[in-house]
Amino acid sequence: MQRVDKKPILKRLLSNNSYQLKVTIYSKEKKILRSTTAMLQSVQKKTTREIYESHRSRRPPKLMSSLILWLHNVRSMHNVGSAFRTADAFGIRSVFLSGYTPAPPRPEITKTALGADESVSWRQSADPFDHLRWCRENGYTLSGLEQTHESRLLTGYHPRPDSQICLLFGNEVTGIETNLLTHCDSLLEIPQFGKKHSFNISVSLGIACYHFLYISLPSKEK
Predict the structure, then answer these.
(1) Which backbone phi and psi does 142 adopt, to 5 degrees?
(2) From edge to edge, which strands make up the β-sheet containing 152-153?
(3) What is the pLDDT of residues 143-165, one digit of tens each?
(4) Is 179 helix (H, G, I), strand (E, B) or coil?
């Protein structure tokens, strides 16, 4: 009886299966590529000009256009620049600087602010009580972002839409000085759930500003 060498047959079968597998993978890849291409064609980024025009067509709510950000003894120029950029994005009235907080014009501030230090009004005084007096004379409520036993969660703070609020932020390490804390009308704390106990000040600025924007928007825009 003649023996049949099965190796060539097995080789052909494996080759055929491999070919079919390659065809299947190629077909799937083509479908994915077509799907991705269609998605990219349907989702297009705005140009810089389109973004600028959409921003010009919007008006910030009154709560935001009267809001003031006050930085006292904030050491980092990058944090100061970030405050200006955030203030510009949210349509905030002004930035107050006091103590040894650096003030424009400084290249380090402008670099982070992307020029917002020229578009946002600001006021600087070494003596923080100059700003405090201004707030009292102009009917502003002073709210400090600080972790104290008297602080309330930011998420539970809902001022009236016509409120005039000055948000006070302190040093990156030590926070707001005690002599200023006692003059705050309210103390606010951002809720946290991790093992660390604080945010970078530029992050805190963004969170706080977005909260005030959100609560001041009409229900249909939320």
Answers:
(1) -95, 115
(2) 121-125, 94-98, 68-72, 165-169, 141-145, 186-189, 152-153
(3) 999 999 999 999 999 999 999 99
(4) helix
Contacts of 147 (CB under 8 A, 6+ apart): 175, 189, 197, 198
Cα–Cα distance, 96 to 38 (Å, whole number): 49
Neighbours of 75 (CB within 10 A): 15
> Which residues neighbour 195 within 8 Å (Cβ) at sequence distance 6 or greater?
none
With DSSP H G I counted as helix, E B as strand and the rest as coil, what are the percentages for the chain, rounded to 5? 50, 15, 35
Q: Which of 181, 178, 204, 171 is nearest to 71 (CA)?
A: 171
Q: What percent of the chain has pLDDT over 70?
A: 80
Concatenated DSSP letters of 26-81: HHHHHHHHHHHHHHHHH--PPPHHHHHHHHHT----HHHHT-EEEEES---HHHHH
Q: What is the DSSP letter of 197?
A: -
What φ, ψ does residue 97 adopt, rounded to 5°? Answer: -125, 135
Q: Residue 161 has which token pair?
A: 């839409």
Residue count of the chain, please give it: 222
